[in-house]
Amino acid sequence: xxxxxxxxxxxxxxxxxxxxxxxxxxLSIDIVIIGYSAEELKCLLLQIDDKWLLPGGFILKxxxxxDAVKRVLKERxxxxxxxxxxxxxxxxxxxRFKEMWKEFYQKSGLSWTDDCWLNSRFITxxxxxxxxxxxxxxxxxxxxxxxxxxxxxxxxxxxxxxxxIALTARNRLKEDMKQEQITFNLLPAEFTxxxxxxxxxxxxxxKLDRSRFQKKMLSTNLFERLPEQxxxxxxxxxxxYRIKAKNY
Amino acid sequence: xxxxxxxxxxxxxxxxxxxxxxxxxxLSIDIVIIGYSAEELKCLLLQIDDKWLLPGGFILKxxxxxDAVKRVLKERxxxxxxxxxxxxxxxxxxxRFKEMWKEFYQKSGLSWTDDCWLNSRFITxxxxxxxxxxxxxxxxxxxxxxxxxxxxxxxxxxxxxxxxIALTARNRLKEDMKQEQITFNLLPAEFTxxxxxxxxxxxxxxKLDRSRFQKKMLSTNLFERLPEQxxxxxxxxxxxYRIKAKNY
DNA sequence: ACAAAAGTGTTCAGCCTACACCCATGG
DNA sequence: CCATGGGTGTAGGCTGAACACTTTTGT
Lengths: 248, 248
Description:
The structure is a homodimer. By secondary structure, chain A is an alpha+beta fold. Chain A contains 7 helices and 10 strands.
């Protein structure tokens, strides 16, 4: 399912004109979808005109906020059961896209006025999600021209406050990973300790002692060592691990 | 200023009928206002009919979310510069007050229908605030019959999910105080270490070593010891402290 | 056998814990 | 001068930091 459910049900013109009948007004959801590849933390962005923005959406009138986030995530990444977490409310008093939607209205033969529902003030509920970048197949909807993964160090020009939302998520991840074991969501289901070690160093932007890191990770008892196999690189090959099934 | 600014500008009938013209729809703010007295953590609640609810309000159309929280806090407690923090989004799909407002509509000669704006689904942005209970002078507005402070262990019957919001705040406080020094907001401007010690024990619901507690607190360098004075109790009298002015 | 990379062990310092001891004051 | 309660010191244990050593495998 690579298309947006929302836009399957209504074409662009109908969405621009009547979307407000189906979603809660003045409220949006934005998700900082974080991946990891080539020893860099990356963020999934969508292009509209010459700027980029976070994947996001709206809350349907009969839908819980949580379900809306899950739906948007699934629409955008085709992933189910993605790890996600609330980030922050962005609620400035005149927070609106202004010119972004203008072109779409004009293309669709609609007039762009101050009272277009998409031109109103939006409070956004920002979330962040951790995904395995290899298993993530982003989907475009009718308004997006492209998607791409950007290193947090080289974010492009972005719409509105989306850059600061993305960077807030990057910093939050640093804090959260000290409290809970969540980083494995960024790796394949089977991974090695050296991989996890490098990932932590990348996120924290500092060197971590190899010995201590390994002992700390294994002492959590969350990791299950797999029978040694995979011999493909010079030198000793690391064990592979996966996350133990939770004991309910 | 002990009255609600919002209800100064419009009387109850007008608010029930036309409030939606001034505030963002489907969105509310609720604040768990936490105080401390008699070695108990307490929560400020307002009474409507036979149930209680959290102090809350709405976001004015030209107002940031942050400003709305500050306004509601000031309206309800007459306090300025209160410590507050975001708690959680409560966004269930059919989250509404149902019968709560019915009586007010009928009293005001308005018909209570399914499409009353106050009967619609509300997503609430929940915050918690820490206040000095002695300096807090709660204010009622036209819809509230009473206010009272309730121990979190003996919360009364509450509207909708407000009980679970309150308890979420109580638990969050436990977590947050381990990370940042915030608890002094619950005490007078000048307090003693034994007081702070007892407060921490109350919040965490566990015994804390006196010696270690004192050393840990003083090692943060956030506390300023005042010249010894106040002699009123038997035994040695504790030093008084206040929070150092922040060094900007 | 050697280099490279992974895994494990050892030592030391610092912090947390529990408890003992010292101080100030009122009766 | 003793009871009460506040303030400070100290010995033991645990945890984290730095680094050394061992293991595995390709060349």
